[in-house]
Amino acid sequence: MMDDVINQSVLWIQAGLGTKMGLQDKGQTQKMNLFQAVTSALDNSLAKDPTAVIFGEDVAFGGVFRCTVGLRDKYGKDRVFNTPLCEQGIVGFGIGIAVTGATAIAEIQFADYIFPAFDQIVNEAAKYRYRSGDLFNCGSLTIRAPWGCVGHGALYHSQSPEAFFAHCPGIKVVVPRSPFQAKGLLLSCIEDKNPCIFFEPKILYRAAVEQVPVEPYSIPLSQAEVIQEGSDVTLVAWGTQVHVIREVASMAQEKLGVSCEVIDLRTILPWDMDTVCKSVIKTGRLLISHEAPLTGGFASEISSTVQEECFLNLEAPISRVCGYDTPFPHIFEPFYIPDKWKCYDALRKMINY
Amino acid sequence: MKKMLAAAVSRVLSGVAQKPASRVLVASCNYSNDATFEIKKCDLYRLEEGPPVTTVLTREDGLKYYRMMQTIRRMELKADQLYKQKFIRGFCHLCDGQEACCVGLEAGINPTDHVITSYRAHGLCYTRGLSVRAILAELTGRRGGCAKGKGGSMHMYAKNFYGGNGIVGAQGPLGAGVALACKYKGKKEVCLTLYGDGAANQGQIFEAYNMAALWKLPCVFVCENNLYGMGTSAERAAASTDYYKRGHFIPGLRVDGMDVLCVREATRFAADYCRSEKGPIVMELQTYRYHGHSMSDPGVSYRTRQEIQNVRSKSDPIMLLKDRMVNSKLATVEEFKEIDVEVRKEINDAAHFATTDPEPPLEELGHHIYWDNPPFEVRGASQWIKFKSLS
Fold it and tell me: Which GO terms describe its molecular function (chain B) (predicted)?
């Protein structure tokens, strides 16, 4: 079942329907998958910024997902180096580097392991500028972590912890959906003068392939992208789930004649309320989907804000299609994830409300 | 002639317990019942005396250890095979090569003592009392598995065995906590808290050391140093690779982890140390794993095949025990072959069970989130699909 989802996603992405941003003005492009796009972004950063360093577990040989292949050979072992196995240490160390003004790009091997570093991120990184009255900041810190379900990850290799960090003012949380988006958003995160967490959907590392510019470019943060315009329902997701709702949109058009507006949120914190609300005012219906558990997931924040801003425009209750309120299961994964059928079902019920 | 006799005896008594055949063989072959062996002296840190350098191994114990190690070895190889056939999915961390550690540790403690370890746990699951069936069925995610199919490779539990932990180093403070409970209950039990050379650099381990030493907890910190933390060799990750000294204010010993007798004696020594309320102790087991870190790691990109082959030919734990026992006439080569055959059959049966047992029913998706709550409905992907959570 999971393989079907991946295959469908690959077809969609290769069809080039994923991005509306023009590639014309960005120079020479190359076919890259997501991890190659990340490598390209890191390569550009290290070339442009002499203070940039990349560190984390196993990054020197290229990383467990090959995101840092070739960088150590190109830029030297004092700029791309391994850390011992200590996430709290990695992030704390990164905050220290960033405070002195150097650009720190830390890698946490899986988003599931970010929790020992949670205190450092939430209590130190996020609050540094605020508590020092803008005297100090760790804005040049970017933390990258593979994120989301992968088909066989079970409890500790599949989590999507963006909701935990969304509750923390002071940091930015970004999730790309494709190689082109990933490179642009990662470069923006690195340039951004605030500590950023960049979650990379690990299932798309190889599965997503598209033409990506070789030269650096940036995609603005806190701007959602309307991938497909529509008039009846707004569908919002981020990361891998965007591809699922795109398919749901086409299913809805084909089977129900319903025109869906598909939005990729891209930045979770601070999120683009204007784009989403404008869309809901137009359509009157909203469906949000993510793999993370339902209770307290980021869909709840979007839902709450939208009902505040667009109450009178809503034709049906806002629908959230998310993972179950259980730990991410081992054998039950195909039943746990919010696949296209669950989203389609929810959409249908919303239309017939 | 001897072979025919042995075979005939085995055939006749194959339905009955093994012992009568052994006794017949003993009587006919004039084997001794036990032998004394010299074992490697352990390096000591902050300790005046260490474990003894000689030990007595009885025939019965020797055959038991051999059988256990061979079962673990075969079980891990079967898991490798099942993984490649895609019956087992997800993550699978095999411990073949480290059998002497699990068996030796178990031999040095009582079943009432407690053990907690990391994700490379299949061997310890077996020594702590889980059957091969339950372990393999858990790996394939079936309802006959020890965690009902919900945990998988990294989350297997048994009585007095607290798993099976996926997050590196997280079991350190947990083990110290179990040791606190042991001290509190006053039954002279100890807790073996295992972790690897990679986890030895985690902050939590040092927090656990501090608490254990401060409150004199009966906690044996066991560092299974297999020289590589996933793909990073110990020298590249640790400022000090003397893991037995890392406890600083906690005494430590470094043990040859490929010799089951050495591990047994060291464990007895360490457990006695803790039981006599002297506080925690650190034990570093120098061992080696043949497989890569997990099934997705071929294991040869950061070390040479030559190195693996060297260890296999010179220090394989099963081979070491077998050679010792045969050379000191504690058992015959045929007996070991018989054990091999039985073990193979057991593993094959277990694998058959693991691949044919049904998966847990879908309703169990929401079970066991909380305890003692009235059954509630687990919300999820859709407002109209909910699972019941029973405790």
Answer: metal ion binding; pyruvate dehydrogenase (acetyl-transferring) activity
